[in-house]
Amino acid sequence: MTQTSLPLAAKRATWLYRAAVCVALSAITATAFAAQDFGKCEVTGQKGSVKLTTVVPGTLSVRPVLGVPGWWNGDSPDTIKDGFEYCMAANMAYRAGLDRVVLVNRSFQQILTGQSQGFDIALSEITITGPRKQVVNFTEPYFNSDQGILVKAGTKVDKKNLASLRYAVERGTTAYDYIVEKVKPTEQPKVFNDPPSMYTALAAGQVDAVIYDTPNVLLRAKNSNGALEVVGRFDTGEKWGGLVNKDSPNLAAFNELIESMKKDGTLEKLSAKYLTPELGADPTKVPVLNP
InterPro entries given for it (predicted)? Predict the structure, then answer.
C-alpha cells in the first residue's frame, strides 16, 4: 500500500461513516414521526380490527368539548391527553389501525348543521334527538345522561318553585326545549354559547340555575369549594352518541367500535377511572325534580 493511498482510504471510510450516520438519523426521525400518540391513554383490543376512512390518513380527527374535566382533561386541544371521551377516541383509533388522535375545534352549532368539515367524529356529550338525526348521523349511545340543576349553595329549589327560577341553557342543546315545554318558567331561559358563560352568569347572579348534563354540573359543583351545588336533575332519558356527517362512510365502523368497548368493559373502566373520582357523586343518585 502506498503512502498516498492511506489518506484516500481514510477519507473514503469517513464518507461511508457519515453516510451511514445520516441514514440512521433519517430512520430515527421517520420512526419518531410515525410513532403512535394516544396521550396518556391505555389502548386495548386488536389493532386494525376495524377500518375507518379518515380525513387525515393514519389519524382520527375528533371534535372535543373544552372545559369539562373528566371527559377531556386540559384547557386546549394541545393540552388534552386523557379523559373519558379522549381515551374512548384513542381506543377507537388504535382498534382502527390508526396511529394518533388529533383534536379539532368546531362550534357546537357548526357540527349540528351537518355541513362542518375536517373531523371524523364529534365525541362531545351530544344528546341523540329525532330532529338532529334528520341532519346528522349518530352512533349507538355510549352514555346515558340527563339534565342537572346547578345553583348557588343554599338556593331553595323544589317542584313548587321550578317555574319561578331564571334558567341558563347552552345554545343548541335539548335543555332549552325541556325548560320551555315542561317547566314553563315565567321568564324565558337565557341562552349562552358555552358552559363557562353559563357558570359566569350564575356566579354574577344573572340567573338562578344552570341546566346542563348532570355529570358536568356535578363536576362544577365539586370544584367550586362549596359555592355551588346540584340540587336535583330532570330525568329526561337522554343518551349521548358520537356525531358524524350524513356523508360519513364510518357510521357502521364507529358503531362496531362502541359495541366492542361496551362488551369488553372498556367504557366501564374509563368511567371508573375518569368520571367517578372527578364528579364526587353518582349522577344516578341525584334526586329527580321533574315538573
Answer: Solute-binding_3/MltF_N (IPR001638)
What is the residue type of 3?
Q
Alpha carbon dihedral 61, 88, 72, 108, in 10-degree steps, equals: 50
Among all chains, which residue has been given the C-alpha cell 358520537?
242
Q: What is the pTM of this model?
A: 0.70
Spatial CA neighbour of 88 closest among 78, 103, 75: 103
Q: Using one digit for the tens of pLDDT, what is the confidence trace for 194-245?
A: 999 999 999 999 999 999 999 889 989 999 999 999 999 999 888 999 999 9
Rounded distance, CA 123 to CA 126, Å?
7
Paired sense of beta strands 228-244 and 137-152, if any? antiparallel
- Amino acid identity of 78? D
**What is the average pLDDT score of the chain?**
88
Q: Which of 58, 28, 201, 103 is nearest to 212 (CA)?
A: 201
Q: Supply 67's cell numbers.
A: 372545559
The CATH number fitting domain 146-237, selected from 3.30.565.10, 3.40.630.30, 3.40.190.10, 3.40.50.10950: 3.40.190.10
Domain 59-144+239-280: which topology?
Answer: D-Maltodextrin-Binding Protein; domain 2 (3.40.190)
Question: Rounded to the nearest 5 degrees, what angle is found at the Cα of 87, between the Cα atoms of 82 and 89?
Answer: 125
* Cα three-residue angle 233-236-239, rounded to 5 degrees: 110
Exposed, middle or buried by CB within 10 Å (0-12, 13-18, 19+), for 128? middle
Question: Among the residues of the chain, which ranges form H helices?
Answer: 5-34, 84-95, 108-112, 130-133, 174-178, 195-203, 214-222, 251-263, 266-270, 276-279
Question: Is the model's pLDDT at 191 over the cut of 50?
Answer: yes
Rg (CA), the chain: 25
Residues 6+ apart with CB under 8 A from 102: 56, 59, 60, 61, 62
